């Protein structure tokens, strides 16, 4: 059985290394970063994007998810620019408050930063990994990508909802400015080697150029296949 998670996309941040450009709206190979990450929506039950109102325009290039729960839930941490942990806390609150969808929240939460040009590919790897864990009864709390240097890519990860919610509750009022390492410290996680660079992010204009070149070479004039 394939796990169907809820999807959290973190679309805040200041884009400091991009000269203050609004990162979700930065285009890579002709599409915004946010729209590329939202190609993962067909894998998810519900989707929450955490970001300011101007992020909505950057999402318009994304395909419509072929599920009844295709509407994006929008949220924003308070105060803004509170960091990824505050963003996750805001997303969980938005999922809890969403009354438009009769289904209960999913057992797994797929967490992706908006600056992953191949975020949908990362999502497929992560969903496959936890689906495999579920099939053998493995009780670990989640899977995240690791780059070739062994660095954990926490914002390309999938986590048990109960474990992630408990971690957020543990931090309480200290989510603003908290690190992902602090949030996930007590979770039993598996690092998955990112062999094909699905979790490579974009921080600088040079990164934008490199990612655009890679995508143009491998997927000319095509969107990432969401299936």
Describe this structure in words.
- The two termini are about 15 Å apart.
- The chain is built from seven helices and nine strands.
- The chain has one domain: Spore Coat Polysaccharide Biosynthesis Protein SpsA, Chain A (Alpha-Beta Complex), CATH 3.90.550.10.
- It is globular and about 40 Å long.
- By secondary structure, it is α/β, with parallel strands linked by helices.
- Mean pLDDT is about 90; it is low at about 65-70 and about 220-225.
- The strands form two sheets. The protein has a seven-stranded mixed beta sheet with strand order 5-4-1-6-8-7-9, with helices on both faces. A two-stranded antiparallel sheet has the order 2-3.
Features:
single chain; 227 residues; alpha/beta; Spore Coat Polysaccharide Biosynthesis Protein SpsA, Chain A; 7-stranded mixed beta sheet; two-stranded antiparallel ribbon; 9 strands; globular; disordered C terminus
């Amino acid at each position: 059985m394939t796990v169907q998670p809820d999807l959290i996309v973190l679309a805040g941040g200041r884009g400091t290394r991009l000269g203050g450009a609004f990162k979700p709206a930065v285009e890579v190979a002709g599409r915004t970063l946010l729209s590329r990450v939202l190609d993962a929506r067909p894998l998810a039950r519900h989707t929450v994007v955490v970001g300011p109102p101007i992020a909505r325009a950057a999402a318009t290039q994304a395909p419509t998810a072929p599920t009844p729960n295709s509407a994006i839930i929008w949220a924003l941490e308070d105060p803004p620019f509170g960091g990824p942990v505050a963003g996750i806390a805001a997303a969980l609150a938005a999922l809890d408050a969403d009354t438009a969808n009769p289904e209960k929240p999913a057992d797994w939460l797929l967490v992706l930063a908006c600056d992953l040009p191949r975020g949908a590919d990362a999502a497929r790897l992560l969903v496959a990994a936890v689906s495999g864990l579920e099939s053998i009864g493995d009780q670990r709390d989640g899977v995240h990508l690791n780059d070739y240097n062994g660095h954990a890519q926490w914002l390309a990860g999938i986590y048990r909802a109960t474990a992630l919610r408990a971690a957020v509750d543990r931090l309480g009022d200290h989510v603003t400015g908290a690190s992902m390492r602090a949030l996930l410290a007590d979770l039993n996680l598996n690092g998955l080697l990112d062999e094909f660079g699905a979790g490579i992010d974009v921080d600088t204009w040079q990164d934008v150029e490199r990612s655009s070149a890679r995508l143009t070479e491998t997927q000319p004039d095509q969107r990432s296949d969401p299936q």
